[in-house]
Amino acid sequence: MKYSRHFKAAPASARASAGFTLIELMITVAIIGILAAVAYPSYTSYIRKGKRATAQSALMDLASKEQTYLLDRRAYSTVQGDISFTMPAEIQGAYTFSISCTPVDCTGSFTATATPIGGQAVSGEQSLTVNAAGAKTPANTPGYWGK
Asked: What is the extent of the structural domain holding 59?
């Protein structure tokens, strides 16, 4: 039997399907890196705005409970437990809530404040307030109170 010393090369289609080249892999990694660099800030902004909206809703709930407490007791309260207010779980660790009254006996007015803390404060969030008259701050600021 006679053997040939010449080997036949594999067809081009067989070589192309063998896998990825290092260049193709590096281009894919670079594209994924660019997409992640664009998507992550958008995601964190979305989370921050969602927490702000939840805090605004909680402040409005707190103000409503204060008005109910006023009707029942003829004075506002600075104790959140007295008005049955509980902070939503979604914003635990992102905001603290406080209530102040004027005059000292709390018969005149109240101001409820949601102060950002932790990562929410680092992003430049402003404190949110609402008072007995329904005035909200920060007023006329884009992104706050539906503006």
From this structure: 20-137
* CA distances (Å), origin 17, targets 22, 23, 41, 71: 14, 15, 38, 78
Q: What is the rounded distance in angstroms from the CA atom of residue 128 to the CA atom of residue 112?
A: 8
pLDDT in tens, 54-104: 999 999 999 999 999 999 999 999 999 999 999 999 999 999 999 999 888
Band of pLDDT at residue 146, cut at 50, 70 and 90: confident
In a domain, 10, yes or no: no
pTM of the predicted model as reported, rounded to 2 decimal places: 0.75
Amino acid residing at 40: Y
DSSP codes of every residue in 28-52? HHHHHHHHHHHHHHHHHHHHHHHHH
Tokens of 143: 């992104």
Dihedral, CA of residue 14, residue 17, residue 18 and residue 20, to nearest 10: 150
Helix (H, G, I), strand (E, B) or coil at 142: coil
Cα distances (Å, whole numbers) of residue 45 to 66, 90, 93, 146: 31, 16, 17, 16
Domain count, the chain: 1
Count of beta carbons in the 10 Å neighbourhood of residue 46: 10
